[in-house]
Design brief:
With 798 residues, the chain is an alpha/beta fold. The protein is 26% helix and 19% strand.
Length: 798
């Protein structure tokens, strides 16, 4: 992190001067090719590169992080306290401005003016008047003070609603563009392999098809607003040993090709993602940031990616300091640049003076610098930042609302769609006039709604003197709104992760005197051990944190009907309690409107429609385990450990009922280069509106290598009024059956298959056999990646 010698970012209430006018001291002459928006981008970039010195090209390859005073990146303290001469730094230009809004709390309008001032100074300082790309985190909304806080990605997965996620991302992007930001460091496309990993909350789930389709929708939405989406963490980060952050990865080529890589491929090919961030990790001894086979061979030469590759924070330096595959900063820079890392973030620890000296000494080819600079300048050109009419100024007044009503409405809809009803014996919905005990440490805590990349949990916790900045109703407050005639008795009982059990008897007493007890438990998000979920907050096992399990046991012992409400960033083992619970509700950090969403499900205002994006285990041990296991990964007599989940991937109940009828297959045979259609009628047979999620799985009984017993290849979310019916059709191309075969190539293999229409990975409603015919076929990155979904209405019978 750099500390300015003469300037600092504004704090709340600071006066901010306007930006100076005019171009740089040696501003470009009119008619230069690189300034002409009518000329092709490649011509403009080539013309500009020819005019730039080595120092000027190099300056495009790193950022600067101004004013950081906390720990939001791993080993950040190792880089603290370095002063920078701002005027000298920007003299040759600057590639990126790191988190001008997400570093310290800043009023949105004041922050926009401050960013415009910095950009104007950068433009004025360098010969060509090139501004910097400003990037920010945007995992669960624009990570800045007073901006809308949406549900975390695990909740996006639970919604099974890519269209809604796309709308949310477009709203996030619009907020970022309104203040002058250009790039967002999201989405996370890591596929959960071990839920003990602290960053499980940042993922979309444990299935690559779900992760890929939801993540691609996010990319489309964000980029529709003019923000560059950054895919992370490419690749393997979530497969770290024992679920430990930054731990080594020992994934084989099939796990990489068939589980971990497809979401990135989908987001690039179908979403047009324009930036990629390499994973911190190593795979089989090779750090990803130094792996040219991944960052150039696969990403660019095979997939055709043409955007920028930006390092994770301090990742280039970690090649020397953590991985120890480089002896100096210059050597680390050489490894990363040669592999294909174009930009070093958050600042130029290695790509600055160390790389400049290495190029001048002939240790790094200057062509490598030019290659990376071309990619950066191409992106700036595409963003309009090289156009003669570009201006750093943004249209803001004295107040800028980054949490407008339409954003809150989206946050609420996504939160409502993501709440999963795990179990229910009829206790839910709650009776309007009931006496309800509401216990648990998270019942009346707004932080219970927030993931680790929300601004309050990411940064604001270091500024306790400031308010959260947005309205976040708690579950308790929202229940009072939903059930005004009910009597609510609130007792916390314990803390999230502390050892104090003194409050448990009072909570049990409240439960014993109630008609029903709500036990609201879960996680507190944080960073690097400052929470129970989040980056660096990994778990040894999947027991409920702290004394929460004991609190739940004490309540259950009273015999009062008990509803468990979980607000978490990962799944926790519930097998010890499930048979004694009257109902269970799971929400994954549902954002600022999450309290109202959960209360709406409890009261019955909201008909639950969320489905699990991760399996919920029965016991706290036996990890890692996801539903994507081959036969030997299932329970069998060879082991005393039963890994079968308590609630499987895709599981979720409703307050209404749905009938699936009239299943039809277009043909019993599927050529290895053809497609087949599978149709069914879905009708809401209940008395209230609701949404059904139809899931399509593939079962391959015999293959040349072991395969998951079942895997998702399509899904559809269907909102239906009472009595309403639709005809749903999945068109499945043979490419969707492909996998990495014995020779390491992706193949479509003839033979018998089974298409399963299912309500979860473990519950099949209809199974249809298909015979794949023809010769084995090798496919590549040009294969079909998704099933086509068609929904047509069915007129009511008269």
């Amino acid at each position: 992190m750099s500390e300015l010698v003469s300037d600092e970012l504004p704090r709340p209430g600071d006066a901010v001067p306007g930006p100076p006018q005019g171009a740089g001291p040696e501003g470009p002459a009119a008619g230069e090719c690189w300034r002409d928006p009518a000329r092709p981008v490649e011509e403009r970039v080539a013309d500009l590169l020819e005019r730039m010195t080595l120092e000027e090209r190099l300056a495009q390859l790193y950022g600067v992080w101004l004013g950081s005073d906390g720990q939001v990146a791993p080993h950040q303290d190792a880089f603290a306290g370095e002063e920078v001469d701002w005027r000298q730094l920007i003299k040759a230009g600057l590639g990126q401005l790191t988190r001008p809004f997400g570093t310290v709390p800043v009023e949105p309008a004041a922050g926009a003016r401050a960013l415009a001032r910095l950009q104007a100074e950068i433009v004025a300082a360098n010969r060509f008047g090139i501004p910097a790309i400003a990037h920010e985190e945007c995992l669960a909304g624009f990570t800045t003070w007073q901006a809308t806080i949406y549900p975390v990605p695990l909740a996006w997965g639970a919604s099974f609603d890519p269209e809604l996620v796309e709308r949310m991302a477009a709203q996030i992007g619009a907020a970022m563009r309104s203040v002058g930001v250009h790039q967002g460091l999201a989405p996370v496309l890591d596929v959960v392999r071990d839920p003990r990993w602290g960053r499980t909350e940042e993922t979309i789930g444990e299935d690559p098809y779900l992760v890929g389709t939801i993540g691609t929708a996010y990319v489309r939405g964000l980029q529709s607003a003019g923000i560059v989406a950054t895919l992370k963490h490419f690749v393997g980060y979530s497969a770290s040993q024992a679920g430990r952050n930054l731990a080594p990865v020992a994934a084989g080529r099939r796990e990489l090709a068939d589980v971990l890589l497809p979401p990135f491929e989908m987001a690039i090919r179908l979403g047009g993602a324009r930036s990629v961030m390499p994973s911190y990790t190593e795979i089989d001894g090779m750090p990803v940031a130094a792996d040219g086979d991944l960052l150039t061979g696969l990403l660019r030469d095979t997939w055709g990616f043409s955007g920028t590759v930006v390092s994770d924070y301090f990742e280039v330096a970690f090649l020397q300091l953590q991985h120890r595959v480089a002896g100096t900063q210059a050597e680390a820079a050489r490894l990363a640049l040669t592999a294909g890392v174009d930009v070093e973030l958050p600042e130029g620890n290695c790509y600055g003076e160390p790389l400049l000296a290495a190029v001048r000494a002939g240790e790094v080819p200057e062509a490598m610098v030019t290659r990376a600079a071309a990619r950066v300048l191409r992106q700036k050109c595409e963003l309009g930042m090289l156009d003669p009419d570009w201006t750093p100024e943004v249209a803001v007044g004295d107040h800028l609302d980054l949490d407008p009503p339409q954003a809150r409405a989206l946050a609420r809809q996504l939160a409502e769609e993501s709440v999963v009803l795990l179990a229910n014996d009829g206790t839910l919905p709650l009776t309007p006039r009931a006496r309800i005990a509401v216990v648990g440490p998270l019942a009346d805590d707004p932080d219970a709604m927030l993931g680790c990349y929300s601004f309050p949990r990411h940064v604001l916790s270091q500024h306790p003197e400031l308010p959260i900045g947005v309205e976040i109703p708690t579950v308790l407050a929202a229940l009072r709104e939903e059930l005004p005639a009910a009597h609510l008795d609130h007792v916390p009982g314990c803390t999230v992760d502390g050892e104090d059990r003194a409050g448990i008897p009072a909570a049990a007493a409240a439960a014993g005197a109630a008609d029903v007890c709500l036990v609201v438990l879960g996680d507190r998000a944080g960073l690097f051990g400052r929470g129970t979920s989040g980056e660096g907050c990994d778990r040894e096992d999947l027991r409920l944190p702290g004394a929460q399990g004991e609190l739940l046991e004490a309540v259950l012992a009273t015999g009062t009907p008990t509803v468990l409400v979980l607000l978490t960033g990962r799944p926790y083992a519930l097998g010890a309690y499930t048979d004694r619970l009257s109902a269970a509700v799971q929400a994954f950090f549902p954002g600022e409107e999450g309290g109202r969403a959960v209360a709406g499900v409890l009261s019955g205002r909201v008909c639950p429609s969320g489905r699990l994006p991760v399996s919920i285990p029965r016991t706290p041990g036996g990890q890692p385990k996801t539903y994507l296991s081959p036969p030997l990964g299932q329970h069998n007599d060879a082991s005393a450990v039963d890994p079968t989940s308590l609630y499987p991937f895709g599981h979720g109940l409703s307050y209404t009922d749905f009938a699936w009828t009239d299943v039809a297959l277009s043909s019993p045979q599927l050529p290895t280069d053809g497609e087949v259609s599978l149709s069914l009628t879905v009708r809401n047979t209940g008395s209230r509106a609701g949404a059904e999620v139809v899931q399509l799985y593939l079962h391959d009984p015999v293959a040349q290598v072991t395969r998951p017993v079942t895997r998702l290849i399509g899904y559809a979310r269907l909102p239906l009024a009472p009595g309403e019916a639709v005809r749903l059709t999945f068109t499945v191309h043979a490419d969707l059956t492909s996998f990495t075969g014995r020779a390491g190539l992706r193949v479509v293999e003839p033979g018998e298959l089974e298409l399963r229409l299912a309500s979860s990975s473990a519950v099949t409603r209809h199974a249809v056999g298909v015979l794949m015919t023809g010769e084995q076929r090798v496919v590549d990155h040009r294969r079909r990646l998704t099933a086509e979904v068609t929904v047509t209405g069915i007129p009511e019978a008269k």
